[in-house]
Design brief:
Elements lengths: L2 H17 L2 E6 L2 H5 L16 H7 L1 E8 L10 H15 L5 E3 L3 H10 L2 E8 L8 H9 L2 E5 L23 H13 L2 E3 L5 H10 L5 E5 L13 H9 L3 E4 L14 H15 L4 E3 L18 H10 L4 H20 L1
Parallel strand pairs: 1-2, 2-4, 3-4, 4-5, 5-6, 7-8, 8-9
Helix pairs in contact: 1-11, 10-11
Length: 330
Amino acid sequence: MKKTDREELKSKAADLLKEAFIIDGHASSLFDAVNGLRDLRKKEETGHLDIPRLKEAGVSCQVLAAFPDQRIRPMRACRRGLIYSDAFHSLAEEPGVRIILSYADLEAIKETKELGIMFALEGGEFLEGEIAVLHMFYKLGARVIGLTWDERNELGDGVAEAMTKGGLTRFGFQVLKEAQSMGMLVDVSHLSEAGFWDVVESASLPVVASHSNCHKLYAHPRNLKDEEMEALRDIGGLIGISFNPSYLAGGGEITVSTVADHIEHALEVMGENGVGLGSDFDSFSGPGPIPSVEHLPVLVEELLKRGLKDEVLKKVLGLNYLRVFRAVMG
């Protein structure tokens, strides 16, 4: 590619990102905050994102997840979730940051140009078997819930429990129904295959796989098979493509081109309305194929180079997530 062509591509990507409403459906950065590794309110060279860098990158809304780490096992899960919630709310003390509690909030930040942040629970462990705790976390701002992480919990089996072939428990079905009735987005990433089908066949509203990739390109249990993506598509859901190298390929060099391959395949299966971004930033060490949030232009350049239209790219960057949030949050 000639220098002038590269410059033109960079310029086009920069312009598109300025116009786009960008939503990243999953990052694990709160783990660093609650464990005292860094202050997400300050710009730092470590980690994949923080509030200043999200603003500089032009991100419109970032979903930040509470992770069910070893400290919550076998007890104190709810307490740990409250610590995550406190860390999340502290971010909104920064100027120009707004907690997203409703679809109206998402519409509002289009005008105010504030950075929206949304709180997610990455695993039903935090509920400790009580629907009342789900209600409490909703009141504390949680608007996304992943039913499991990799292991089994009171809601169902995660992907690491493949030998049991277990799906959702009775409590898992109860949480699915109650979460959707309140306007919480249900996330099936990390859920077992049987659990995935339990959710898709029982859901009354769209659900997402917030940070998963394409099983056909890399046969990892965390990735979705084509028939699973088709099922998500058919209920109005989406897949958020992850930048985590562990789910992109099994070996060799993993680059931004690898991420683009997964996006293109997902678009082929899901259609242009069913694909978003779920970076999974700060869940993996090292730079990865997209080293940090500031490097989103590199991905956009790669997709433009492959011939994706601006309108499709804007959907992938955030408009598809916006559609899902509108359907779920009302």
